[in-house]
Amino acid sequence: MENVTGGSPLPVCNDSELMLALGSGNGTEPRCAPPADYYFFRDLYVVLPVIYSVICAVGLTGNTAVIYVILKAPKMKTVTNMFILNLAIADDLFTLVLPISIAEHLLRYWPFGEVLCKIILSVDHYNIFSSIYFLTVMSVDRYLVVLATVRSKRMPYRTYRAAKTASLCVWLLVVVIVAPFTVFAGVFVSPDRAARKSCVLSFPSPEGSWFKASRIYTLVLGFAIPVSTICILYTAMLYRLRNMRLNSNAKALDKAKKKVTLMVFVVLAVCLFCWTPFHLSTIVALTTDLSNTPLLIGISYFIASLSYANSCLNPFLYAFLDHSFRKAFRKMLECRPA
Question: G-protein coupled receptors family 1 profile domain location, by residue (predicted)?
Fold first, then answer.
């Protein structure tokens, strides 16, 4: 690329100069020529914070409303809603720290220190594991309800208190699973002239093997095991319902139980839709050696945004699929005279 004045060609920007060009936008005379994909990264630099900000605003508002409704409305204190409450807390926790990730993206470096780096990366991984594990517990609960209905039995052990205990166990399990990521999270200082700080997972040598092990760890514990469990439960549930209609004189599930089961199934389907590409990308990363082209980087950011979007979709699903939620939301939004 030649200078606009017709002089000698400008040297191509190195990484640090490119980051400064992306972050400044002050109209100063360029000292180097950007690479061919510079404008792609410039657009990405602007678009991603907008997408993340929308996810943050919608997710924080929706999940906070869900938490408020379940805690304030006496009729909302059910076993299923206890799991939904914890799911909303997990999503709210992630959206609360998302602005820090936006700030890091805009600044192009990490200015917040070691402790906050560990917290942010830990919460990011809580988001990966907590949603799918709470949905697994909800699927187990739905299976037990269907099983008890088919057998015309009561479930005295299925109480709100038992749901609290199960939720606490899920949180403890997620904390244990995420603990290795908390240990390895830290601030990395680049060795170039810019000495740019980044909040990353800093693995010991050999880093490549540790990185692959961490991806396999996340894939197995955050996707393969819980999703397999959920698929087995729903297959068994559908099989029992089919046999009940064909071979039994037992009554069908009542309307309310059907609606709750449908809601859990839809929330699960949306979760899998948002998170499956993320875990499939892990398989691709482990089995292939792809170069970082602009197209690949754009796809990876789209996949990350899709997984983040799951944190703001659930409140809309509750509002559309659960009449009691809609009723409680309306009461919450009513303007009552003093």
Answer: 62-318
What is the separation of C-alpha 244 from the centre of its chain, rounded to a whole number of angstroms? 37
Q: Is residue 139 part of a domain?
A: yes
The answer to the question of residue 19 being in a domain is no
Question: How many structural domains is the chain composed of?
Answer: 1
Domain range for 132 is 36-318
**Range with lowest mean pLDDT among 5-9, 11-15, 279-283:** 5-9
User: Dihedral (C-alpha) 154, 157, 161, 166: value to the nearest 10 degrees?
Assistant: -120
Q: What sign does the CA torsion over 281, 231, 129, 270 have? A: positive
331 is a domain residue = no
Q: What is the pTM of this model?
A: 0.79
Half-sphere CA count of 321, side-chain side, radius 13 A: 17
User: If you ran DSSP here, which 8-state letter would residue 10 be given?
Assistant: P
